[in-house]
Amino acid sequence: MGFLEKIYSKSPVPLQTMMLNAKAIELYVERYGKKFWDMAEQFEKNQWRSSGDLKEWQTDQLKRLIREAYNHVPFYHQIFKENRLTPDDIKSLDDISKIPVLTKDVIKQNYSKMISTKLPRWKLRHGHTSGTTGSPLDLVYDIETCVAHHAADWRQKNWAGLTYGTAFASIQGRVVVPVKQKKPPFWRKNHINNQLFLSSFHLTNENIPRYFDELKRNNIQFLEGYPSTVSILALWLNKNGMTFPLKAVLTSSETLFGSQREIIEKSFCCKIFDFYGMAERAVFASECEQHIGHHLNEDYGITEFLDDRNEPVDPGHLGHIVATSLYNQAMPLIRYKTNDSCSLKAIKCRCGRTFALMDDVATKNESIVSLPDGRLISPSVLTHPFKPMVNIIESQIIQDTIEELTVKIVKNERYSQEDERMLLAAFKQRLGEIRITIEYCEVIPRTKNGKFKWVVSSIAPQFNEKSLSIPKNIKDSL
Prior knowledge:
The chain has twelve helices and 20 strands.
């Protein structure tokens, strides 16, 4: 936990709200304003371009990125030299196949060489990803990338009917409320974006009714969050014979399973608008009002679907998602091979948007972690302790009893006791007093297809009538 996080966690609620909104103002100045609205207007036009115009636009953006990478990123200058390429060899989108596929391991090995020498350090923004395997990766963005990401995100929200300035709620991985806090409020308000942050770490039978009270008090009609976290709220409603009508639910960061979609849409009396993105800011795919797939935001990045030999697969065939950001000049990711797989659809969407459609992303079926105090924790929430842990190669979380989690770790030679201390502190911050056992290993076993579940829990989430019953006076008030 950083210095400011420690101050935040120990501050009274009004001061926490002030600190949260001070940060929101800082981000608003950087990521919104004229640049954002200009790009949002451009993105609005892009989705209706003809296929030819869109490919021409993509090609121009790609050429710009390639030239910047060649001239100012040592790694790519070397790669082009080794493959006897120059930026002039990339004349069309098809020419991108001349550039080798980039893996996460290659990025880690060449991290400093992948950062542009052109941009001053004060213009760089840092991020992290843990991925679905808990293997963290440090990332660098320029400000234009941050603006582009928010423009794509708000276009998706607009498809769901949510316009900027309208009140909405988010229940994701942020620790907006200290885990040790036992009484409401389990939320904090971002007044700048009219956004209500809900804690993902206080979802107990006793607390959940208070969440719905607060949603009602704020007249929330839109809710975004991880599918497994939103489904906890939906299952609570369903088990108590209740609904909480919204205009739309937006989900991301996990595979949205059919059973989750069914219970969420039933309980909240609305459609889900799911989207797929990544911390690498290389691909963004969003669901429109037709709900027949995810539109690849082709003005955000170039997405390929490749087989194990890095050859393109036909529509309808599963392939590795290989993505190229069209914006990030600070740390260009060109033909970055993600840990996810998917297939391109052969059909066009009835909505009339030019963007291609892809199927649901075939990521791992993670497990919800159950805690002794009755809280249920989304697996995506558990990626957050790993994000700053650059000395962890891979990890896996296993729950065999309600009182304990085992965290398997494959570490590198730089891993230290301080890394372990930080990891345990981050888990404690989110989960409370549950026992965490660290188990170091050389390798984490895979299944026959070479994959593994990152979170494996043998404790079934308690959604029985007894655990989800509520007093009649509270039920009638919702």
